[in-house]
């Protein structure tokens, strides 16, 4: 992401599959705070807020604008599933990839060697021990490195779902609350259909 504050960041690659967004639709205060986080290397960047407040879209824009190669995008559920499958089967086919990889390679190539990791939608459910441990390892291995986490949960909510080990690492960098309305609802179309008016019959005898 460019550090010039007057213009919008340039998109250097496609947005992650299934996302569509524009920097011009992001609140300039959010963009400025994100630029600060990048400049100060204040990681991780946690963005939290209501459903539909624009977290995934904003994270997708940061992904597409990141100035270095090797950016990785995972939904939290997908990342956990990929690692669990690699553990069970020895190999897993990563989304958008043609080759299978083992668990060791996921950690080394996808996590440690990436210039930016984005973990979308963390903590939608109470994690099992196995899920917890995988998420902990991811967050721990990215300590001090560019990591963006989006979540519906407030910092207090995260503390209830995860324990202190994850929460303290997650809250060590920049936290931005998207206190914004649900844009999906705002874009939704509303119709109201009522009973047809009865036309008085004037031909009655
Ligand atoms: N920067 C943006 N540019 C274009 N559309 C956006 C942007 N941010 C949000 N939206 C719209 O709002 C919807 C909800 O945003 P999303 O990022 O999915 O919210 P969240 O992840 O917080 O639930 C998107 O599907 C998109 O239509
Ligand atoms: Mg989302």
Could you explain how this protein is built, in words?
With 205 residues, the protein is of the alpha/beta class. It has one domain: Rossmann fold, CATH 3.40.50.300. It has 8 helices and 7 strands, in the order αβαβαββαβαβααβα. It has a 5-stranded parallel beta sheet. Strands 3-4 form a two-stranded antiparallel sheet. Helix 3 crosses helix 5 and helix 5 packs parallel to helix 7. The longest helix is centred in the middle third of the chain and has 14 residues. The model has no long low-confidence stretch (mean pLDDT 93). The site of adenosine-5'-diphosphate has 13 residues, from helix 2 and helix 8.
Give a brief description:
The protein has 205 residues and is of the alpha/beta class. It contains eight helices and seven strands; from the N terminus they run H-E-H-E-H-E-E-H-E-H-E-H-H-E-H. The termini are far apart.
Distance between the termini: 80 Å
* Small molecules held by this entry: adenosine-5'-diphosphate, magnesium ion
How would you spell out the order of helices and strands?
HEHEHEEHEHEHHEH
In total, the number of domains comes to 1
Q: What's the arrangement of strands in the largest beta sheet? A: 2-5-6-1-7
What's the architecture, going by CATH? Answer: 3-Layer(aba) Sandwich
- What does the main sheet amount to? 5 strands, parallel
Please report the first level of CATH classification, the CATH class: Alpha Beta
Write down the Rg. Answer: 22 Å
Strand content: 15-25%
CATH structural fold name: Rossmann fold
Molecular shape: globular
Helix content: 25-40%
For CATH, the homologous superfamily is named as: P-loop containing nucleotide triphosphate hydrolases
What kind of oligomer do you see? single chain
What is the residue-mean pLDDT, rounded to a whole number? 93
Q: What would you call the structural class?
A: alpha/beta
Counted by DSSP, the helix tally is 8
